[in-house]
Design brief:
The protein is of the alpha/beta class and 325 residues long. The chain has eleven helices and twelve strands. It has helices spanning 2-26, 51-67, 82-93, 111-120, 144-158, 174-190, 207-217, 228-240, 256-264, 275-290, 314-320; strands at 39-45, 69-75, 99-102, 124-127, 138-141, 163-170, 194-202, 222-225, 248-252, 269-272, 298-300, 304-306. Strand 9 (248-252), helix 9 and strand 10 form a beta-alpha-beta unit. The radius of gyration is 29 Å and the shape is elongated. The chain starts with a helix and ends in a 5-residue tail after the last helix.
Length: 325
Amino acid sequence: MNNKVGTAIRLGLAAAAFVLIYLALSEEPPVPQAKPSETGVQMIVRTVHGDYWKNVSLGAEAAVREFGISLNQVATDSEGDVARQVLQAMTALESNPDAVVLAANDDEAFKPFLDEAERRGIPVIAIDSRLTSGKTETYIGIDNEAAGREAVRQLNVLLGERGRIGLLAYSEGGINGRLREDGVRFAAKQAAGLQLIAARSCGEGDCETVAGQMLEEYDLDGIVALNTNATVGAADELKRRGLRNRVKLVGFDSSPELLELLQEGYIQKLIVQNPFNMGYLGLQQATFAAEGRRLPERTEMEVAIIDKDNLFWLKNQKLLFPVVQ
């Protein structure tokens, strides 16, 4: 009786073992988990032209590689084409992106876009130009009004805190240009020894001519120029007139042409941003926003003051030529 029971138990255990082995061998291999889809980001910037925007794109591309982002970038041919840029932004929403990175040419014109993006639950990251007409998750860029004040402060030092100065703005400067001009005018009023006696605005292709008219009409000791085109135009006119170091020029931005004019002494100071980091942070914050993370209200970027003495410092070379980063 005991032998029969023992035999039955052994047979049962053997059968169970056989079943387990069979199941183990016949089990289908685990199905690999699908890779999470990439974060889809639409990026709309102010223009396709200029070293500044090329460096913004380089920074964005670095973020694409690091964070696994699917990026579609568009821009207008001209910074003044606000209607075209708004259309590009509205069209971008139709692809239902996870986030939008926007460097806007105008504030109020983008209110319908910002309202629609909010209605669809698509976060918008503002870079370069701060927007107040609708909701954005964050702003990444400099304080442009403060940058205008800093340009006057630098010029005031160059002139020994006394002199007659002119302002050369850019007609398509948008939000940033207006804020910089506000800063220049405010700082000029605060500087007891300075007189802002001329203010002109130029467009693409005529900044040198407008600068020449201003120099012809007024006896200027210094000029503040508010963007790349205005700065190049003013410096070229000073060069044409042989006014190296005689009329001091403080400008904005950087390009090979500007840096050459700086070394030649037709520009004394350049107020320079970090567009590479701006592009990188814009895409990084877009990824965070798409994940539902809470972002800071703004990430304020510092400006660098570039002159002949510090032009070749390593940190400034990395700023001016981001391919070395």
